Amino acid sequence: MSRKNIMLAGLVTAAFTAAILIFAWRPATHEIAEAPGQPQPQVEKTMKKNALTQDVEMTDRLNKVDVSRHLRTLISKSHDSSTSDVAVYARKLQQEHGYISMLMWIDFRTNKTMTFKSSLPKGSELEQKQLQKHLKSAKAAVKGHQSYESPTFIIGSEKYYFIAQRDQKGTTAVIALINQKVLGRVTDHQLKNLRLIPYPKEGKYHVESVHADTLRDMTVKTGHDNENASHYYENEIVVRFPNGHLTEAQLKDISRDIHCKMPRKLGYAYIFRSSDMNYTQLKPYFTNNWHPLYSEPHYMYLTNDKVNENTGGNLPPNDLLFSTYQWNLPAIETELGWQLSKGSNDVIVAVVDTGVQANHPDLEGKLLAGYNAITNESSPDDDVGHGTHVAGIIGALINNSEGVAGISWYNKILPVKALDSTGAGTTYSVAEGIIWAADNGAKVINLSLGNYADSQFLHDAIRYAYDRDIVIVSAAGNDNTERPGYPAAYPEVLAVAATNASAKKASFSNFGDYIDVTAPGESIASTYPDSQYAALSGTSMASPHVAALAGLVRSLNPDLSNTEVMKLMTDQAIDLGTPGQDKYYGWGQVDIFKTLQAAGGEDVPLQMWPQRVRQQLDHLIQRIKHNP
Q1: DSSP code per residue over 145-174
Q2: Does residue 32 fall inside a structural domain?
Q3: Taking a C-beta distance cutoff of 8 angstroms, is the pair 381, 390 a contact?
């Protein structure tokens, strides 16, 4: 027998043996966590308000720590630099951080003061007196060799505070006026994200709301009503025809009948917009005259919140906010996981969301050019904050002494803007974003968005990406409901629910039989627009933990298919609920170290042996074909 035949026979025998063993093997179970109940709407609202308050308070702490670091850096640079160099750095600091409303540098050696952006905010006479009072207190503090932080005060409609620091030698000091608009942005964001208010508002976007099961019209009056509602554009319809395409003559006939311009086509489906017919009129027209494979509303999807390569390897990371605020990374064994994989430039993780701040200092060098599915023209800039936060969880720079640490050191992030400035997007924009990411190199796609309507149009886009061997990860939603949310509930998607710091179900997290895994999702610190940081809660924050893990797995073992990567993550999850998969935790909370340990090297877990043997067989057969 030839050496090649011996190798082939050995692999076949190994595959047969592994199949027998895998059939008999059963994983050990873990401690059973108490299944959480579903609270009444008022109780749920109170829990969500508490989560919002916690996010705002933590965001305030994150940014005060970050501001203090910037001021210390400015002071240290002034020791060995000329006055002009200090001015250049101070102006650059303000340009990159627009929330620094005023910056004052004092040199006690020369009694020289430089003030940058010296025009203070205007307010009432009483507000101006209060501002001057705090500024005077800041100057007195640094003159007395003390630091200073004022209480928050209001000028007009904005909140501010003064912060002042002096170096240990007593030679220089810095005073800054900080605009706290980020707190208002986080509040507004989380009111929508945690569904504490009706969202989107009826009528503002020319949308209708329907019950997700019956498609009967309903009005969303409270945040809790979002649980049963799906929103769609009232004068549009999505249609897929049996033969896939329409002739020019057929398009003209339809345009005449329903009074529309040329429809948009994406993938397999068309979107028609009538000038005077609504969905309830369009639906029977297409059903009776064209017998489509499907026709459905054009749904809206909403956010589901609640670099230069860094080669350093010291653990823990020196990122400013890591040790104190990033509880989420140790919770899923991230640091141990980094010993096995830190990611790869070759494995791209797409973030289909609201865009990403391109020049955030903690994402420098990590972002690819991306795409804007809303305008089809401009860059995917983030005008909401959601996408920047998601991107930071995946890949904020590590060991750069700045802000937060991401989960991946090296995976590139592909930002795709599919949600507009309100945080909402259509089936078309989300589907286009998914397809564009699939066609432009993504190996993992994160979808921190959702709706309760099962759209065949969106499912087509999901299948398109899945058929191209892409791992698709999606947030389950924040309505604390068992109702399946989409795209998370599609079988091709890994559905992620949220846990808190106690490894319990987050109060807002959706649940159900479709949940695959959980990940941290309560008060997660990450990057935010205007080069700031914010703590947000939501399954939107849980999902990128899992997408980042998929990126690490595919970096460590590129031979694994998307289904194998997904199975690894579920198989190696830490079981938090009843043994096996349950509706609150899926298979459990993801564990980065265990998953990477199972994915890499020769230490292949038993349940992965059939796939590994099959891969080796395929590779061997290919080599035999090419080298007979």
Answers
A1: T--EEPPPEEETTEEEEEEEEE-TTSSEEE
A2: no
A3: no
Q: Are residues 490 and 525 in the same domain?
A: yes
Q: Which residues contact 605 (CB under 8 A, 6 or more apart)?
A: 571, 572, 598
DSSP of 335-396: HHHHTT----TTSEEEEEES---TT-GGGTTTB---EETTTSSS----SSSHHHHHHHHHH-
Q: What's residue 40's pLDDT?
A: 65
Coil vs helix vs strand at 295: strand
Give yes or no: 540 in active site.
yes
Which helix or strand (DSSP H or E) is residue 24 part of? Answer: helix 3-24
Out of 60, 66, 305, 353, the active site residue is 353
Of 150, 523, 540, 543, which residue is the catalytic one?
A: 540
Work out the angle at residue 494's Cα, subtended by the Cα atoms of residues 489 and 497, and round it to the nearest 5 degrees: 75
CATH number at residue 75: 3.30.450
Domain count, the chain: 3
Tokens 């002009």 map to which residue?
84
Q: How far apart are the first and last CA of the chain?
A: 15
Asked if 421 and 561 sit in the same domain, the reply is yes
Which pLDDT does position 207 carry in this prediction? 45
| 224, 386, 389, 459: the active-site residue | 386
Q: Is a pLDDT exceeding 50 seen at residue 276?
A: yes
d(CA 139, CA 250): 76
Chain segment 120-159, per-residue pLDDT in tens: 888 899 999 999 999 999 999 999 888 999 999 999 989 9
Residue-number span of the structural domain to which 101 is assigned: 48-183
The pLDDT of residue 614 is: 57
pTM for the whole structure: 0.73
Residue 429 is a catalytic residue: no
Q: Is residue 38 part of a domain?
A: no
Q: Residue 353 catalytic?
A: yes
